[in-house]
Please model this.
Amino acid sequence: MKWLVVCLLFTNHICSANSLSINDWLSYFSNNNINIIHSSDYLSTETGEQFIDLNAETVESFSQGLESFSLTLVKIDDHTYVINPIASKHQPVTGLIIHASDHNNNPLESFYVVYQDKRFNTNNGVVLLNELSTDNVHLSLGASDYITVSLDTDTDMGTYKSITVLIEAAPVRIDKLIVTASRFDFQNLQSSKNTFSRKDIENTISFSNDPIRATERVAGNTSTGLSGKFNTRGGHINESLIVLDNNVLRNPFHFKNFFSLFSTINLSVVDGLDFYSGIFPIKYGDRLSSVLAIQTGDNLGKETHEIGADLLNVYYTYRRNNSDFSKQFMASIRTGGQLINDKLIEDSIIQPEFDDAYFKLSQQINNNWQASQHLLVSRDEISINDVNDEDTGEVAEAGYHDQDLWLQWNFDNHRNATANILVYASRKHNNRSGNVLTDSSQASLAEDTLTKYSGIKFTQTINYRDNLSFNFGANLFNEDTVISSTRNIYHFGPLVEQLGLQRQELNQFELDRSGNGIDSHFNSRYKLTKKIVFDLGFRYEYKQWIKEAIASPRFNLSYFYNDSTTLRFAIGRHQQSQYLDELLLEDENPEYFEPSSADIAVFEINKELTKHLNLRAEIYYKKYSSTQPYYENLFSGLQVLPDLFFDRVRVTPDDSEARGAELTISSNHEEVNWSLSYIFSDVDDEIGDVEVPRSWDQHNALKFNLHVPFDLKYFHNWQLDFSANYHTGWAKTELIQNGDSFQVGVRNKDNFPDFYQVD
Model:
């Protein structure tokens, strides 16, 4: 029956292939190298949504279909047409088709034209002026980061004339320079220059095409492979800040307590990523190790409807905009997990379900102001029954419901000032329960956490002079949380007693608390010479439930030695305090700790060896202070409920330290790209004057990634993505046998075998 439905849907799609909206037909012809230009004067937003049935997928048939709307096509050349009123067949229209390009003849997609005091904006590379009544017009053309030009041009009466205007790039504004060390470029693998693009993420092998998992290819990141979370340069998995369209997301993962398998952000909406692993920009704070900033972009050049499916999930993305892209809407809905059950998979112990959706509405208010509204929602339900015939094993169930809403307004005067105002509100409701019954443990837990937080954030950048820029901002917020937690633990038996891990406890914890907070930052950027630019910034954070405030000074310096070589040095302090609901519920009396801090120094060399070959080398040192305690399992953390097993221990470092070096060679040529990284790292906790390796410590690692597109005789647009990873074994604790007795070896003194992975 399921296959019949699929076949009927496919048949229906084939039968209706020649019935599309006008906007979809425009996209279809554009994808076939036929450019049909139009303006809102003749083709309104409402008309563009009307459907046309064509007898053939040809321009001629499309022109006939437009006649029912009193429109027609005017041919400019074999690949260019203009939509005009049908009356123009008898009364020809005089007009201009205006394109713009830079001094390298690269076409510009976004620019504006001013004619007779009226401004025409475009995001699709062309401006159309209709019904010109003179044989000579005066206009001006400009674009962001380019010098505005004025010109007089002749028209061809009774027809359309196509012109291309060359404009020169303006000197790079000081606030646009990249000064931060350890900013990773996914596209060219050249640090501190660009961002990850969606295409680069798709070309990265990752579980469920998760955009966050794509960062596993970054040299300094390590991961278990099972979890969607990662450790950056020795830090914990909770030391990474994740930002979506300027809004900070807290723990945006599906199945949070069950390995956080993948994020709640669908790749379909992602346009690019910025990843920072050194001294990150002063506007980011409250985490110690890394920042992942995700952008969703606009609808330009993207399909109206996008559908995807695999064994885990199905998603649908819809995009809509008006003719000049000044108003845009995007909605993406994803669901999955329903096929993972005992009806499809025999003896399945897990029944997961998840949904997420992202909605974005944006408006270009005028040349200086842009507004957008965002909503991200997700839901998880999971039940696990791993009990054998002897009624021993693990049973667990959980539900997670997240809602994030934010509104923002962006200002840019295109000269020397930008600003962002962001208002946000979030609600998180997590609950988890389960029990473990083995020959050494009888344990159960029940947790329920409801958190709400909201705030308003403001940031602004002012370029005081060509060589001096200031960036400052503040964030005022309120948090409210209600937590209920019960743990009943009993670890027993000869082995547990020999290891000294026996215990019995009943912990019940209730919390209903709210509090306010503020963080602010100020950064000055100064261009000392044409080759030397530095940032000097300071960040302040305060939360009512934390005993002390946080102060973070940071310094980044870039030396642009020549066009192919850049040296960067960064030094500063990152600090991290707990969110209101970020308590260690495994503690007998959960409490808020003194904020952790990390003093970090980074030195980076970025060298363009050839036009298509790049070298990046970095060394870093990170010294932790006031390191917060954490829990882990001595022997294995791959259980469903690892916090209920007898080998669960509390690690309380006095301090911690991480150091390392990363060397990456990369190439990007004619859509074939590859990268090879060697990483040395060492991270230790200092416990009672003894250095203990962290469990994810790996001294040596290699990462290789390759992407090759190719065409076969009968299979077009294929691509090969290859990934290979190697690292020395992670630290482990041995269980030592002496005759008939056992004892726990020195924690993390030994190592697992070396790890290899090929995808």
In short: The two ends are 35 Å apart (CA to CA).
